[in-house]
DNA sequence: AGAGTGATTCTA
DNA sequence: AGAATCACTCTG
């Protein structure tokens, strides 16, 4: 997969972050080492996955919202048979987890180790432009956090969830 | 626009 | 304990 859309969550400083009210059993991996995967279950049926980013204790993370399928399409379609197109396979945080079969068992795994899921640099050139916009699904109680444009996506990628963020 | 679904967290 | 909330997706 090539990651094409993410959202940033700034730990205890960010009212929209799971970590805002401090460490709990659920968000414990956010407070741990960077490079690990934080997986949570929501709305009674969906998993979403984040890459922990900041130094241990800061609970900063990036939510994986969209990815382009570059290999293993057969397996992915089997994991998510309702997808109408390859672009739709991972266009959305819960779709991405379903397609990649990410679940509870993957919470806390080290993405820099040679495991089932790995995070690698594909060597692609830095994009000339990046789309940005407000994060999705924030409730009124997150207040001023909605003003920050911490949702980012690559232009010209179909596997970006809707609504697409705008160019800067 | 609304339903579905259940873990987690807040309030008392 | 009970209630509210929820970083979503699909259907109509």
Short structural summary:
The chain is mainly beta and 168 residues long. The mean pLDDT is 96.
Tag the structure with descriptive keywords.
mainly beta, 168 residues, 6-stranded antiparallel beta sheet, 2 helices
Could you please describe the fold and organization of this structure?
The structure is a single chain. This protein is mostly beta strands. A six-stranded antiparallel sheet has the order 2-3-4-1-6-5. The mean pLDDT is 96. The structure holds a DNA duplex (12 and 12 nucleotides).
β-strand percent reads 15-25%
Integer-rounded radius of gyration: 15 Å
State the total count of DSSP E strands. Answer: 6
Helix residue percentage: under 10%
The rounded distance between the terminal residues' Cα atoms is 25 Å
- Biggest sheet details: 6 strands, antiparallel
Q: Would you tell me the overall average pLDDT?
A: 96
Going by helix content, strand content and strand pairing, the class is mainly beta
Strand order in the sheet with the most strands: 2-3-4-1-6-5
Order of helices and strands: EEEEHHEE
Please work out how many helical segments DSSP would assign.
2
Poorly predicted runs are none
Overall spatial form: globular
């Amino acid at each position: 997969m090539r990651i094409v859309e993410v959202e940033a969550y700034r730990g205890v400083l960010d009212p929209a972050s799971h970590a805002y009210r401090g460490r709990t059993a659920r968000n414990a991996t956010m407070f741990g080492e960077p490079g690990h995967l934080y997986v949570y279950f929501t709305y009674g049926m969906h998993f979403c996955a984040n890459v922990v980013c900041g130094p241990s204790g800061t609970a900063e993370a990036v939510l994986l919202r969209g990815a382009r399928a570059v290999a293993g399409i057969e397996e992915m379609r089997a994991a998510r048979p309702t997808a109408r197109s390859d672009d739709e396979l991972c266009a959305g945080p819960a779709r991405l987890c379903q397609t990649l079969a990410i679940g509870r068992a993957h919470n806390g795994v080290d993405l820099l180790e040679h495991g089932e899921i790995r995070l690698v640099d594909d060597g692609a050139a830095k994009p000339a432009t990046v789309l940005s916009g407000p994060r999705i699904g924030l409730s009124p109680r997150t207040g001023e956090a909605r003003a920050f444009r911490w949702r980012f996506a690559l232009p010209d990628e179909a596997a970006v969830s809707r609504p697409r963020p705008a160019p800067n």
